[in-house]
Design brief:
The chain folds into 3 domains: 5-86, Uridine Diphospho-n-acetylenolpyruvylglucosamine Reductase, domain 2 (2-Layer Sandwich), CATH 3.30.43.10; 91-203, Uridine Diphospho-n-acetylenolpyruvylglucosamine Reductase, domain 3 (2-Layer Sandwich), CATH 3.30.465; 220-302, UDP-N-acetylenolpyruvoylglucosamine reductase, C-terminal domain (Uridine Diphospho-n-acetylenolpyruvylglucosamine Reductase, domain 1). Helix 1 (5-14) runs antiparallel to helix 2 (47-60). The protein is of the alpha+beta class. The strands form 6 sheets. A 5-stranded antiparallel beta sheet has the order 6-7-13-11-12. It has a 4-stranded mixed beta sheet with strand order 1-2-5-3, with helices on one face. Strands 15-18-17-16 form a 4-stranded antiparallel beta sheet. It has helices at residues 5-14, 47-60, 109-118, 134-140, 182-185, 201-218, 238-244, 273-291; strands at residues 20-25, 37-42, 64-67, 73-75, 80-86, 94-97, 100-104, 121-122, 143-144, 147-148, 153-159, 165-169, 188-195, 197-198, 225-228, 251-252, 255-257, 264-267, 300-302. The structure holds flavin-adenine dinucleotide (FAD). Flavin-adenine dinucleotide binds at residues 31, 66-73, 87, 105, 130-133, 135-137, 139-140, 142-144, 182, 188-189, 219, 221, 225-227, 300.
Amino acid sequence: MQKNEDFLINLKKIIPSERLLLDEPLANHTTFRIGGPADYFVLPASIGEITEVLKLTKQYEIPVTVLGNGSNVLVLDSGIRGLVIKFGRNMAYIRHDGHRIFAGAGALLSDVSRYAAKHGLTGMEFAIGIPGSIGGSVFMNAGAYEGEMSNIVLSVTAVCQDGSVKRFEKRELEFSYRHSVFHENHCTICEVELQFQNGEHGLIRSKMGDFTTKRETKQPLEVPSAGSTFKRPPGYFAGTLIEQTGLKGLTVGGAQVSPKHAGFIINAGGATAQDVLSLIKEVQRRVYEKHGVMLYPEVRTLGEK
Ligand SMILES: Cc1cc2nc3c(=O)[nH]c(=O)nc-3n(C[C@H](O)[C@H](O)[C@H](O)COP(=O)(O)OP(=O)(O)OC[C@H]3O[C@@H](n4cnc5c(N)ncnc54)[C@H](O)[C@@H]3O)c2cc1C
């Protein structure tokens, strides 16, 4: 894709070359291992850099997409036009002050959970096996085993589209099932403040161990996926409905309904985003036909149609 040279010259003044990539294949940055290239791909290392990048993209009218660990997204085959901000290890600091932990948006949930356990802080055991970043997990209000991010988030520092830095208190975050205010306000989550309680190290560790065993037994963790494909329809479990419809193993191209857990669509080898989208449609159609229940994707589709 042709680049805006003027924009690129200015972008290079903000982000050093080792953290600024052009036409970066996003399949390298999603747990599905699917996705075409991003025109501009940056790995920011500070809130200051994000502020400057967002001001610049606004000035040049370059669209911006934010990516965490890429574990809840389906990036389309033609990729993402404009600039992708990827939160990774350059923004993955974790520190604590008493019962509060502060984490950069790129910190992995598993690392923050382990950090909390190490310091005898309880409240985040549920998150040990969720392969997301802190930023993506607040955006999604990720949850498991009766826990979810909304239970422990105290505040969020984010940069909004005009480049202003804002602090959001918990009451402003509009958390609900797999939803936060960031779906609507399009601000970029940079740092999250989490609240914990004192716990007993051994108990925290054993709870985390139990959750890990449950996941390893039930979920197809050995193959690429984006976790549960569909949201939980009220009163049902998506995986159970799909299994009862006889769709385990249903395949389109390289995409397959996991034979191990019907709630997961997996990349069984060489799947394209189009394969996954076609399979999602087919699953929706057949489940609706059999059960009269409409399934809606939890996985977020990003990129150029
Ligand atoms: C094997 C497996 C198991 C899973 N289990 C669970 C589970 O038990 N519970 C659960 O809830 N989820 C689960 N997931 C899904 C996924 O891990 C979570 O939704 C996670 O919170 C996504 O985080 P991420 O950093 O990967 O976000 P991404 O996938 O990178 O992004 C998700 C969305 O958040 C936005 N976003 C990301 N970072 C930011 C940011 N810093 N600022 C603003 N917006 C941002 C993106 O634009 C995108 O719309 C699972 C996934 C896999 C592959």
